[in-house]
Amino acid sequence: MFNIIIFLIGSGIMFYMAWRSWSRRRRLMTRGEKVEAAVAGTVQSRDGEAYLLEFSTAGGIHHLHYPKPAKGRELAQGTVVTLYYDPDDPAEMYVEGDKSVLGAEVLYIVLGIVLLVLMAGIVH
Protein backbone atom coordinates (compact mmCIF):
# COMPACT_ATOMS: atom_id res chain seq x y z
CA MET A 1 0.00 0.00 0.00
CA PHE A 2 2.85 2.36 0.83
CA ASN A 3 4.39 1.80 -2.64
CA ILE A 4 1.10 2.68 -4.32
CA ILE A 5 0.92 5.95 -2.39
CA ILE A 6 4.52 6.80 -3.30
CA PHE A 7 3.88 6.13 -7.01
CA LEU A 8 0.65 8.16 -6.94
CA ILE A 9 2.41 11.09 -5.26
CA GLY A 10 5.31 10.90 -7.73
CA SER A 11 2.96 10.74 -10.68
CA GLY A 12 0.94 13.65 -9.32
CA ILE A 13 4.09 15.74 -8.94
CA MET A 14 5.12 15.01 -12.54
CA PHE A 15 1.69 15.96 -13.91
CA TYR A 16 1.67 19.11 -11.75
CA MET A 17 5.12 20.13 -13.05
CA ALA A 18 3.95 19.66 -16.66
CA TRP A 19 0.78 21.66 -16.02
CA ARG A 20 2.71 24.45 -14.24
CA SER A 21 5.22 24.78 -17.09
CA TRP A 22 2.47 24.72 -19.72
CA SER A 23 0.31 27.26 -17.88
CA ARG A 24 3.23 29.68 -17.36
CA ARG A 25 4.16 29.45 -21.03
CA ARG A 26 0.53 29.95 -22.12
CA ARG A 27 0.11 32.90 -19.74
CA LEU A 28 3.20 34.59 -21.17
CA MET A 29 2.01 33.97 -24.72
CA THR A 30 -1.49 35.32 -24.09
CA ARG A 31 -0.94 38.08 -21.49
CA GLY A 32 2.75 38.92 -21.81
CA GLU A 33 4.45 41.32 -24.15
CA LYS A 34 5.47 39.89 -27.52
CA VAL A 35 8.61 41.39 -29.06
CA GLU A 36 11.22 40.53 -31.63
CA ALA A 37 14.56 40.26 -29.85
CA ALA A 38 18.03 39.92 -31.33
CA VAL A 39 20.69 37.70 -29.82
CA ALA A 40 23.41 40.17 -28.84
CA GLY A 41 25.78 37.44 -27.66
CA THR A 42 26.23 35.15 -24.70
CA VAL A 43 27.00 36.00 -21.08
CA GLN A 44 27.76 34.10 -17.92
CA SER A 45 24.81 34.40 -15.55
CA ARG A 46 24.31 33.02 -12.06
CA ASP A 47 22.58 29.96 -13.60
CA GLY A 48 25.26 29.30 -16.22
CA GLU A 49 25.70 30.49 -19.77
CA ALA A 50 22.85 32.57 -21.17
CA TYR A 51 21.91 34.37 -24.36
CA LEU A 52 21.82 38.14 -24.12
CA LEU A 53 18.59 39.16 -25.85
CA GLU A 54 18.18 42.78 -26.89
CA PHE A 55 14.95 44.47 -27.90
CA SER A 56 13.46 47.92 -27.87
CA THR A 57 10.13 49.23 -26.67
CA ALA A 58 8.69 52.68 -26.14
CA GLY A 59 10.62 52.67 -22.83
CA GLY A 60 13.99 52.19 -24.52
CA ILE A 61 16.38 49.34 -25.25
CA HIS A 62 16.19 46.33 -22.95
CA HIS A 63 18.52 43.40 -22.32
CA LEU A 64 17.44 40.07 -20.86
CA HIS A 65 19.39 36.92 -20.10
CA TYR A 66 17.75 33.78 -21.48
CA PRO A 67 19.24 30.49 -20.23
CA LYS A 68 21.15 28.64 -22.91
CA PRO A 69 19.96 25.03 -23.14
CA ALA A 70 22.59 22.35 -22.58
CA LYS A 71 21.49 20.63 -25.79
CA GLY A 72 19.75 21.90 -28.85
CA ARG A 73 20.43 24.37 -31.57
CA GLU A 74 22.73 27.27 -30.94
CA LEU A 75 21.46 30.77 -31.57
CA ALA A 76 24.05 32.78 -33.46
CA GLN A 77 24.69 36.39 -32.64
CA GLY A 78 22.24 38.56 -34.59
CA THR A 79 19.56 35.86 -34.77
CA VAL A 80 16.09 37.33 -34.25
CA VAL A 81 13.69 35.40 -32.00
CA THR A 82 10.14 35.99 -30.82
CA LEU A 83 10.21 36.67 -27.10
CA TYR A 84 7.28 36.72 -24.69
CA TYR A 85 7.93 38.35 -21.34
CA ASP A 86 6.14 39.75 -18.32
CA PRO A 87 6.85 43.52 -18.18
CA ASP A 88 6.29 43.47 -14.40
CA ASP A 89 8.82 40.62 -13.99
CA PRO A 90 11.10 40.41 -17.04
CA ALA A 91 12.78 37.29 -15.62
CA GLU A 92 9.55 35.49 -16.60
CA MET A 93 10.09 34.96 -20.31
CA TYR A 94 9.77 32.40 -23.07
CA VAL A 95 11.45 32.28 -26.47
CA GLU A 96 8.99 30.92 -29.00
CA GLY A 97 9.92 27.44 -30.15
CA ASP A 98 12.35 26.73 -27.31
CA LYS A 99 12.56 22.95 -27.55
CA SER A 100 14.02 22.56 -24.04
CA VAL A 101 10.86 23.98 -22.45
CA LEU A 102 8.59 21.86 -24.62
CA GLY A 103 10.79 18.80 -24.05
CA ALA A 104 10.61 19.23 -20.29
CA GLU A 105 6.81 19.32 -20.42
CA VAL A 106 6.72 16.10 -22.46
CA LEU A 107 9.24 14.47 -20.14
CA TYR A 108 7.13 15.28 -17.06
CA ILE A 109 4.05 13.74 -18.68
CA VAL A 110 5.92 10.62 -19.79
CA LEU A 111 7.40 10.14 -16.32
CA GLY A 112 3.95 10.57 -14.77
CA ILE A 113 2.53 7.90 -17.07
CA VAL A 114 5.46 5.55 -16.37
CA LEU A 115 4.90 5.91 -12.64
CA LEU A 116 1.21 5.10 -13.08
CA VAL A 117 2.04 2.03 -15.19
CA LEU A 118 4.57 0.86 -12.60
CA MET A 119 2.02 1.36 -9.86
CA ALA A 120 -0.53 -0.68 -11.84
CA GLY A 121 2.08 -3.43 -12.15
CA ILE A 122 2.56 -3.48 -8.38
CA VAL A 123 -1.20 -3.65 -7.74
CA HIS A 124 -1.66 -6.69 -9.96
Automatic annotation (TrEMBL):
Keywords: Membrane, Transmembrane, Transmembrane helix
Domain DUF3592: from-to ranges: 46-98
Pfam families, alphabetized: DUF3592
Source taxon at top rank: Bacteria
TM regions (residue ranges): 6-22, 106-123
Protein name: DUF3592 domain-containing protein
The species this protein was found in: Faecalibacterium butyricigenerans
